[in-house]
Fold:
Amino acid sequence: MEEKAKIRLGISIGDLNGIGCEVVLKTFEDSRMTDFCTPIIFASNKTISKQKNDLGIDINYNGIKEVSRSITGKVNVINVWNEMPNIQYGKATEESGAYALKSLRAAVDALKKNEIDLLVTAPINKNNIQTKDFNFPGHTDYLASELEGESLMFMVTDTLRIGLLTDHLAVKDVPEAITPKVIRNKIRIMEETLRMDFGIRKPKIALLGINPHSGDNGVIGKEDDEVLKPVIRELSDEGHLVYGPYAADSFFGSEGYKSFDAILAAYHDQGLIPFKTLSFGKGVNFTAGLSKIRTSPDHGTAYEIAGKGEADPGSFKEAVFMAINIFRKRKEFQKLMKNPLQKQNMKRA
Structure:
């Protein structure tokens, strides 16, 4: 238990007018959660105090000025700001976006400095967080710019894993953005994370088609025949267990996804609609491919219920456990790779 508690889990608080604070506080209202990690919330004492009082959440926390002062076995709140923001539940304001960015930047900075081991991000509003210095469509792209590696937006549960070839991109721009190089890179990242972070030695991956019915032999678009299929054949010839392209409309309804370790969708909604339908409230968004671990819940700011105490913390709690599990798996993998005999045996498996 002591070893588990040493994992320093950083939390960016998200949009203060949404449900971010609520799901964070509800998650750690259960004191048993600190048996698994040392949570460090990047916000302020005043902000957390107001939110917990407004929402009637019974939680004690330790206020700190530096991450190094965090106390194992307690919920820690680091003061990123000292003033009291104007919280307006349910409203997307410029101010709430600014504080979401302050929290995120402070948490990522601590992650880069190894002051925290993991990062779990509460939901932001992709519109009001934008500034001249922050011009990203979401967490994934920002983290890719700040941390080493190429990122993959990977939606995961215990039984379902869906990655995206393209993520926050307009549908009209999707076909042009999917190139053989992009496909190979995303497959490489997916295979590496499945081995390193999920303990799957020889991952089996399905690709979904770009067009309806995967183009229907060119009748409904040529991208599947001209771009996807040649790369899949090449990867297969090289020994990768990569299959497809599969028609997305029937792939999940027929439970075809259960035959694979992960699925790579062509664009955002093609992957996220079935994922959220099958696992809403239990799913986790994991940014794979980076040197550091970041997860988040599978929902947004939910302004419509913000401040009402109705938010379900289930997905955020899953994001916490997922981050901790991936951290441990990655540590095990790195240890295994340092042992030449174990490494050789793994290659033979």
